[in-house]
Amino acid sequence: MSEDVAIHRPVPSRSGGERTSLETPRAKNLALMLLAMTQFVIVIDASIVNVALPSIGAALHFSRANLSWVVNAYTLTFGGFLLLGGRLADLLGRRRMFMIGLVLFSLASLAGGLAQSEAWLIIARAVQGLGAAIVSPAALSIITNTFAEGAERNRALGIWGAVAGAGGAAGVLLGGILTSGLSWRWVLFVNVPIGIIAAAFAPRLLVESHSDDGTEGFDIPGAVTVTAGLALLVYAVVDAVNVGWGSTTTLLRLAGSAILLAAFVVIELRQRHPLLPFTIFRLRTLRGADIVGLLIGMSLFSMFFFISLYLQEVLHFSPIKAGVSYLPLAVGIILSAGAASQFVTRIGFKPTLIAGMLFIAAGLLWFSRVRAPGGSYAVDVLGPSILAAIGLGFSFVPVTIAAVTGVEPHEAGLASGLINTSQQIGGALGLAILATLANSRTQSILHAGTHDTSVALTKGYDRAFLVGAGFAIVGAILASVLISSRDSREHAEAAQRGQAAATS
């Protein structure tokens, strides 16, 4: 094993001496708490502004078409720069990039909260996404390098998954409370003290690590092409709802993205020290986990969007009441993610992941029967929310574990960037597809003569949830085919023995 593993790298301690590792459980728990708290903030920022959008639009005089870019600008740069962020962490230092990303994220949050115009806020949100794309893979790779593969890492990633998974639900609740109680600006201001405090504590709680694989210099052509290609892909899918999937604009953007990504592949095959060494894909389980991660994003990320719309536009919940309605979902995710880490140790990540995808499918199928008129939270939302929460915990944790299983320490940031990228691209693609289907269904029902808008909207949500369930079922099938049963079994056996699984 490479000598760059984080627990072996000496760093100064607060007393002026050298600390060679995070050897005590307390030190590791404090490090995990810091990393999980940071990921929580990163995740909620994709959803916290949703409830505040009407207030933002009124305050800054947004056009209706441009208001969605308060969310999309963040998603665009987050998804586009994740792979680059992961590799920067490997090459320049994971703790260093974690801190740089946090400072950038915090400053952009402050700028966004102070925004006085439409363009100002959108640019600030884009820079926030860039900071998040640096922080998230760095944090995940620090966990991978700090906690030994097996039961210890499963537990750490279970906590990570619980916090990250609950972030989407908590964002809606927190957004409603801050917007109603203070101002929409506080959904951005709240990040600033958290980010600065986390960056300040990082040198004390985290150990620096970086790749010692002999890489010299940086693959700038590869970085430019893959970042531009991924960003253009996310841009194409999130804006397809506005301009149409079959429009010339969307087709040209998709074609441009394909050309850039193809150029990236050519560059990487010729580079001596590529940004993305394709040898990492020799790991069958990593390949399968990244593909399934894409489908998790496609099936689940849009669920929060449509539930929020159903609660507020059909059931007429206030922002705070809609936010509180997410509490069972958030608690369910936390509990199921903790349980999932135990199941991964006992039976392996593959059966746990398949079960999670089936729970997601069941929850979304139940959601596809939401009613109007006559719908209610207790009958139409609470039950499927609990099923979806179990599914999210049982899928997010094992897919993350699978995505970093057997990865060499010097490629931890790269593997972390890949699984994050898969989920973010999947989320953007899934939301674009499902929103298009929902809008199309709603419009066709209105044109057919239905005068009850809530009925037409609900029929559109039904269609979106049904197709989302289909994505989850495909994910379960692909997990059973693409992920190695041997890797899963050996990982569980090694975790039960309390030792790291052998590198595949």
Q: What structural class results from the helix and strand content? A: mainly alpha
Shape: globular
Oligomer: single chain
Neighbour order of strands in the largest sheet: 1-2
**What composes the largest sheet?**
2 strands, antiparallel
Report the order of strands and helices: EEHHHHHHHHHHHHHHHHHHH
pLDDT averaged residue by residue:
81
Helix content: over 70%
Backbone CA Rg? 22 Å
Count of alpha and pi helical runs: 19
Low-confidence stretches: 1-20, 499-504
- The share of residues in extended strands comes to under 5%
What is the end-to-end distance?
Answer: 12 Å
Using DSSP, what is the number of strands?
2
Descriptive overview:
It is built from 19 helices and 2 strands. The chain is mainly α and 504 residues long. The protein has a two-stranded antiparallel ribbon. Helix 7 crosses helix 16 and helix 17 packs antiparallel against helix 18. The longest helix is centred in the C-terminal third of the chain and has 36 residues. It is globular and about 65 Å long. The relative contact order is 0.14.
